[in-house]
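Checklist before submission:
- one chain only
- standard amino acids only
- sequence pasted in full

Submission:
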Amino acid sequence: MNKTLISLLLIILMPLSAYAACTDLGGGVWQTDGNEAADVAECIAAASTGNTINVIAGDGATAWAAPVSVTKAVKIIGPGKTNLTITWSGASAFNINTVDAWRISGFKFSTASSQTAIVISNGSGWRIDANDYTNTQSNSGLFANIDVTVSGDNAYGLIDNNTLYNARILMSNASLSSAGINSLWDDALDLGTANAVYIENNTFDDDGTFTKNDVDSNRGSKYVYRYNNNANGIMAHGLLTGYRASKTWEVYNNAFNSKSIKTWQAIYFRGGTGVIFRNDFTSEIDFNGSIEFDLERKTTCPDDYPDCTDTTTRRGACDGDHEWDGNTGSGDTAGYPCRDQIGRGLDSSNWADYSTRPVPSQDLTPAYIWGNIKDASAVTSVYVPSAGGDNLMIVANQDYYINGASFNGTSGVGSGLFTARPATCTTGVGYWGTDTNILYKCTATDTWSTYYQMYTCPHPLAGAGTCSSVAGRAGYEITEEAVFYDLTITKAGDGSGTVTSSPSGINCGVGCSYSFASGTEVTLTATPSGDYNTFDGWSGEGCSGTGTCVVTMSAAKNVTATFSQTTPDQFAVIVSYAGTGEGTTNPASGSHAYTVAAEVTITATEGANASFTGWSGTCGATGTGSAVFNMPANDCTAIATFADDPKYTLTVTYPGDGITADTDVGGIHCGEYNLDCSAQYYSGATVIVTSTCSTASVFSGDCTGADCSLSMTADKNVSLSCLGAKSTAQNQAGGMTAIYQSGGMTGQ
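Returned file contents:
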């Protein structure tokens, strides 16, 4: 066997892969051949949804010039945060756009400037874990940081087990000018559900000069901050420059130990609503207390405070003169409630367009605070600044409720065994059941109702474990890494509809299978399509009936949703004609019954010397072809319009001398006693002009010579004369012939 043939066989026997920098290890696992951005990108291109990409350490350091774009649900696993350091000069290190169920783990991200390590736009079920984010620049005036930016109206996932040094996590959505941004405030609050960004079991540290918050949010963001060790406080912005406020926050079981220059409180919230409980604050946090609620659009503005004096890019002061606010107060509280302020989390309706008036109101959804400790003493107050009137607009037992020294059900938040709650209560107050781990709200006089319960802890994406009442990472333990199982939806029946899930992942429709972490409680909702489909019910995994189906993932599971088609009603199409021309339709003019959603076709045929100019009417038919539309669920009209073809005028100049000129198609009989010398004819008609000349006719104008045949494409003019001195004119009506001579007429 020659060497050429051996080489050819070797090529054939090698794996057929176009990805030279990526090795297929089998079983859905790939390994990069280097640690460069291009190596990772090549493996992403080679991998399939659900695969794992292992990134090798190489020499332990790599510099990326452009972001790695994550375009599919893959797990990108580094060699460990102590084994590979990524620096980058592009807009970010990783960029993820509208992708679900991805993971980035096991890297160190290092920078000496303000850079974004990971950008996330939409998508759910993702995880960022076991990474190190370090900013080596130390200068409080430069605000150097790394942002893990979460952007989009459904960017829900988990950020856990990371170390951030001089770095922060920022949650931000679309700006005020973005279409649909207000729809974020028309959804449910979703407190205690998977529909939020979960930040848990992380360590935030700094060098004492870092002046960014460890976590920041705005623009409709929803986040849960739990079991973290925190060095520099967290923030939620209010309605401000070009964007609306944060929507919801849940902050519990965190250890706050400020090492910063103390320009921020541990919890500094300016908008939205939520819960704050069981956090531990140290004495180092002494800047205006541990928790502050603020109003960025002051009711009265300090000279150096632009957020309420600038009405161009900001909203202006909340002083009763701005239609975005509730404006139900009086005097110093005239603007109350201010839009998106503390204790307001939902619009009363979808404010689809900023030009819509009236502006939707915002329901009262108070914040609840209880069980927080500072140096072993209960935190029983929130700092609300008096400058600018904040303390008049953000009021205890109205916009927020907090535990006090004692509790009798009339104000604040109590805690204890559920059975020990007061029998009487004032609407709005809260009570935390220490045995049930549920916050109860007094929804009416002397009526306690479940209001809030913590979501599964640890988060199912992290795995199984325990979360105790101890604050910080000490109260959080993972005992088993997350396992994922497929939930598959099958649609049955002759109808149509969609099935969606919460947490998101199933949209069937399009995606009828999704992998959820073990222990995840998935709620399925079925929605029939249109007016003539119905949802008949669930089967499989213990689900039945037509309500929601709740499945707890402990293995691969299958659920069937059955939809049926109903018999639709019939309505009338009323066909009629319009215009000056003649024509017909099929079906003809009149009323015709059709079944809803059936395809209706109506054709138009133009008559002689007429043109069909188009359809109109409430059925929605347009154009000059056949009318084709789906029958609506109501009577409707289809109007066919016909127009006469254009006409042109033929004029014959009276020849005199007793001569008569006629046309073969009528209209002109031009003589001494019959002066019908002009007539109109349809465009394109052929008209022949004759005469009673006894000798040869002589035509001029638009005809020349002895004969005259005209095509009417425009107005025409013809003159007639005869050769010789006399001519005969015939009276076609009476059959009389007269000979005209010089000096008189001789009858024959």
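Reviewer check: DSSP finds three helices and 68 strands in the chain.
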